[in-house]
Amino acid sequence: MDIMANVLLAAGASPAMAHSIAEVEDFVGIASAVLINVGTLSDDWVGGMKLAAKKAVELGKPWVLDPVGCGATPYRTQICAALLRLKPTVVRGNASEILALAGASHTTKGVDSTAAATEALEAGMQIAQEHGCIVAISGAEDLVTDGSRVLRAANGVPMLQQITATGCSVTAVVAAFVSQFPQQPLEAAAHALSYFGLAAELGAADAKGPGSLRVGLLDNLWTMSEQQLLVGAKVHD
Amino acid sequence: MDIMANVLLAAGASPAMAHSIAEVEDFVGIASAVLINVGTLSDDWVGGMKLAAKKAVELGKPWVLDPVGCGATPYRTQICAALLRLKPTVVRGNASEILALAGASHTTKGVDSTAAATEALEAGMQIAQEHGCIVAISGAEDLVTDGSRVLRAANGVPMLQQITATGCSVTAVVAAFVSQFPQQPLEAAAHALSYFGLAAELGAADAKGPGSLRVGLLDNLWTMSEQQLLVGAKVHD
Amino acid sequence: MDIMANVLLAAGASPAMAHSIAEVEDFVGIASAVLINVGTLSDDWVGGMKLAAKKAVELGKPWVLDPVGCGATPYRTQICAALLRLKPTVVRGNASEILALAGASHTTKGVDSTAAATEALEAGMQIAQEHGCIVAISGAEDLVTDGSRVLRAANGVPMLQQITATGCSVTAVVAAFVSQFPQQPLEAAAHALSYFGLAAELGAADAKGPGSLRVGLLDNLWTMSEQQLLVGAKVHD
What we know:
Three copies of one chain form a homotrimer. Chain A has helices at residues 2-10, 24-30, 43-59, 74-84, 95-101, 121-131, 166-180, 185-204, 210-223, 226-232, and strands at 34-37, 63-66, 90-94, 134-138, 142-145, 150-153, 235-236.
């Protein structure tokens, strides 16, 4: 939660976190977009997640699903599948998570992917078609699809994997971008991934390890100009 | 929670966090001050909060309320109002939260303030008088009142708003200061705000963005000498 | 949780966090080792902790107990004692926690130790003998015992105490090391403590305070070579 909120603030967004059934719907009412991340699951949070998703759909607001660790346990896979049926605008996961979500027989090792993004492209396209959503698959090169088109976002550095919750954080940035371009969720998601990856590239220049990379990532999310993003973003068909 | 604990440790305090009904009262017994932050609310935590507040009052220990996001949802506003009736020593919030807490009709956008500190001064003074507490209102210039006197604390940098939980963290420092000067909660709260803001100013000198500002803030909370604080603190009537 | 996960990633491990009764056993099934940390206790988490411990024993996987704040409240002490009976491979705590766990009459001030490691050595050896586990006691010099032998690990810097959850994080590294050397838990635990302490020593060279020390710690956990560890680790009988 810590880095997700910091990433959103550094990206210029205004995050608020809530999970109580008593107030999630009200928070959805004042938000521009909703992010549902199943990270540290528990039964009492699941009710809040479902209410938030339903309210977002009801209000016509975009919502983004991060199926963290989908495939790692049957419970987690089942919750993710139930959330998928609630019509997310975008699903962002790594290849293992997307494969598990598509019902492909696949074993996930915790929250890290054991498969390459390309291996999950077919599964991602299938989810996108069936559920009418955008699916973003993180990897060395990220893939984003609406079920027919595929955009590739090729920014980032491998050492991001040594920082916890960078996957969750990039999903939060996807939600922020989609809230600003609700009519173009495919392009918004792809550019969100590139923006995050580019900030990591810029931060990596001065980084000695994952501690200083995290600092540099946050600094560059904040300081990056539109011009830097346009020049540095590697988004292509 | 992460930055709050780090801020307290860097400030020389000794934090412990608990929320279970089964042990909060015992923790209050060994603490010098209690901080209740309603950040990520849930029903099972609210019981712990109320028990902690009551125990602090019973033992004559100062307790500080941070009404995070008060006004954002009816549930949150109601919980904050109930906690306020349990006699906090200090309430620290932004202008939107203080206005909502005072019952002024006011809409909060999540945890960020949409109003200036001065707009909430009257509401803050009213809370202070009615509930016999100190009210601290964060803003470009912080205002601290006991219902009659008003102190202003003018340290800080705008980029603090790009770091999550800095509001929560400064409230934690207020609790630490008030625990050391329980007879002067007005002055203690004002100087806590200036100490935190000054550490941010010193840290900002080397900061490239919110990532490095957070590092510099923690470094300077720890290294700041009493002399530096006396020279740099901008607390005045 | 944030720094624990980052420390494990920087150390080359692959952490996943779970606490729901519905899935902890499945997570234990895919993990190489289990860490149970009682930090922010609540009743619904305790069930998950016990299930995880039992499953680890059943599957013959090492599990490590961090009795955070044991002795601070009766509830906490009782939960820690119950977990100890579930046969951890290693227990890692500070002197106050180990003394409280051994039933010695002792008052803990929150999560910071008020006793030196040597004062708890006898209590630690007693726990190790009774429960057939390794006990690691953190202090200026760390002590690790299997009930008969005692290893000393003498790396680290005092300023680590100004960073939250460094105790919890070093326990996580102990779990990672023990998972790789399950037949030598005594040596694995001692070297885990030295590896962590040495990374802090290397990071302290450039650190201005606890903010930059945390960055340097994570950087050096990642970049440290085997040669650096062999030369710098101060583990001895």
